[in-house]
Amino acid sequence: MIFENAWRSVRRRTGYSLLLVIVFTVITAAVVVSLAIMQAAQTAKASGLANQSVTATISMNRSQIIKDAAGSASSDSSDGDSSNGDSSAREAARTAMNDMQLTLADYETYATAAGSLLTGTYYSQTAELTAVEGQAEPVSSSSSSSDAASSSSSDSSGSDSAQSGQPSDDGQGFGGRGAESPMSSSDFTVVGLSNDEALANLGITVSSGEAVATGTSDTLDAANSDGSYDAMVTDEFAQLNGLSVGDTFVVADSAGTQITFTVVGTYTSTGADSGGSFGPGGFGQSTSDRIIVSMATMSALGLDTDSNDSTQISYTYVLGSGSDYDAFVQACADAGLSDSYQVQSSDVDSYEKSIEPLLNLSKFAKTLLCVVLALGAVMLVAMTLFSIRTRTYEMGVMTAMGMHKRTVAGQMVVETIIVAVLGLLIGTCVGAAASVPVSNKLLASEISSAQSQAQQQQSNFGRQLQGGHAAGAQGASSGTVSSDATASSDASASSGASVPPDDSAADGNRKGGPMGQVTQYMSSVNASVNLTTVGLAALAILALALIAGLVGVIWVLRYEPLQILADRS
């Protein structure tokens, strides 16, 4: 009975009903598009790396260490000279970083704590070697000498300082190396690898000969019959020194002890650290001067971390899935990893950077959703009150004829729900058709904004360094986000999930430094409408209809039938 009367009333009041349908349609379409974008972003963030193996590392949280040291120095010298306080803070930070270097046993403790989250681990140990007069010459020295010959004395001084790798006051030089590093006296870096996975991580491509043996097997400990040790060198190093497979060359360790290496292979590297000199085994030196050996050789030479305090270790954890990353971070914390250390993943960081415009778009969609629902509620309540005021006589007659006021109010609510359902059906179809093109259009706008911001930052950074001249301009352009590269990333997935960019984007993030970093943003997303989206939209629209209907119920119950008829007379 109530439904039949409500349906007749909706049909009788065609103009008002049509207006309500349009309002509900617009609200529904906006809600559907907003929810689709939010769900696509959530899916991309939660499951984008779920089917991909990612790596993670543990490093010192230098900013936290420096902050703690500054706070301690400030309290100790509150009444003294501020310059002395700054010096004390730097010294305290250096001391803390030297004392907090993790050992191989520490890294393996966290690997054990992670348990089944890991599919493997690998590590490298890096020590410093120096050139022997009349023997092998480092590529970096050759390059710096050539550059110095064509530059002014002031430029040469700056280049030599940079080449020598002097540590900065905050102890953050050399891409993660601790303070007080004697890098100014080193010419080569020798890198010992724990297994073939560590070798693969460096992106080694053998040009001639064979890859050096890796690992720590006892069968590898002994030197060759001539007292030399097997090693791989870069093509640049081999060409500069006229070396080929089977030749030997001599270098020296920090104590001056000469070491003879036999070249078993030459290589090129396209790995994570090949794009700059601050990756594993780089430490401020040219990667062309990197000598790769087995971990057994490092141990035999006394250059491993157990024998040499200056040897650095880089330990990598391989996770079976990107979705295990947060669990790994928590496992390390549970195993005792303090806030002075941080767990990082270049794979996760690269992916999160690539979907940053999508996440920003999701925030915008959430704001839009809240605004649409709030304005929709206000508009529907106002329209409901206006409708009731124009139907006071009709309601008075119905109650005077014996219809209970609750029945009249219920009819008003059913009328609103009928109109809301019609608007919901039409709006859902409109939103489903518009969600993908609208979301991709908005995403393109977000990417354009991110590109412009990145270009402006790089431009400003370059001017600060070089005053906008050639060197600075070159550095700025190298860090500019390429619109072509961005456009080439066409990520899509079913059910609103986004596919991460290809490996080249992640490699670009890992290879480049602050001035050379290129981010390949996710340029498209399949923000399609699914049952979850429809269900949430239906709940939101019906909630608005019930709010408007509830206001109408309260208004109707306030009237008295005789008073309404008397006012009409």
UniProtKB/TrEMBL annotation:
In the bilayer, the protein is annotated as: Multi-pass membrane protein
Tell me where in or outside the cell this protein is found: Cell membrane
Molecular functions per Gene Ontology = transmembrane transporter activity
Q: Which residues form the signal peptide?
A: none
- Keyword flag Nucleotidyltransferase: no
Q: Which Pfam families has this protein been placed in?
A: FtsX
Listed InterPro entries: ABC3_permease_C, Macrolide_Exporter_MacB
The name under which this protein is listed is: ABC transporter permease
Q: Which UniProt keywords apply?
A: Cell membrane, Membrane, Transmembrane, Transmembrane helix
Chief location of this protein within or outside the cell: membrane
Which residue intervals make up region (Disordered)? 69-91, 134-189, 466-517
Q: Does the keyword Cytoplasm apply?
A: no
Q: Which residues form the ABC3 transporter permease C-terminal domain?
A: 368-442
Gene Ontology CC terms: plasma membrane
Renumbered to this chain, the Low complexity biased-composition regions fall at 69-87, 140-171, 466-507
Which source organism does the UniProt entry give?
Answer: Pseudoscardovia suis
What residue ranges are annotated as transmembrane? 16-38, 364-388, 408-434, 534-557
